[in-house]
Amino acid sequence: MSNRYETVFILTPVLSEDQAKEAVGKFKDLLKEGRGKIRHEENWGMRKLAYPIQKKSSGFYHLIEFESDPSLVAKLETEYRRDERVIRFLTVAMDKHHIAFAESRSGRGGKEAGEGGRAPRSKKVNA
User: Fold this and answer.
1) What distances in angstroms separate CA 111 from CA 40, 67, 71, 95, 107, one per listed residue?
2) What's the pTM value of the predicted model, to 2 decimals?
3) Which of 2, 9, 78, 114 is 20 to 30 A off residue 56, Cα-Cα?
4) Residue 116 has pLDDT above 50, yes or no
């Protein structure tokens, strides 16, 4: 049975852009080899951390949304723990509300941007 997941990981800031891309590619390849399907991906770039982790105050953030079996998530998280470039990670299973929000946020859902539940604002006309 295939479930939908979202994972965010933070890479150490001492990496160059190319090294960070190579690390992300490694995790994407792991998902593809395990017959996972990548649905969406976002590179958030270098960001300041809310608190120091391993004496570092910033890191490269990356988000990947994917579909896979639960066993693949365990393998992915094991790889995160083994890779010294990853300083923090979080993987969550997406429920139907999370999926709907993610699709509307990125414009991939059934509704186009601006077609939400609210009516468009009308301009006030002074008479």
Assistant:
1) 17, 22, 33, 19, 8
2) 0.78
3) 78
4) no
Helix-then-strand count for the chain, H and E: 3, 4
- Residue 72 exposed, middle or buried by CB count within 10 Å (0-12, 13-18, 19+): buried
Identify which of 47, 43, 33, 14 has the alpha carbon closest to the alpha carbon of residue 76: 33
CB-side exposure of 95: number of CA atoms within 13 Å? Answer: 1
Start-to-end Cα distance in the chain: 62
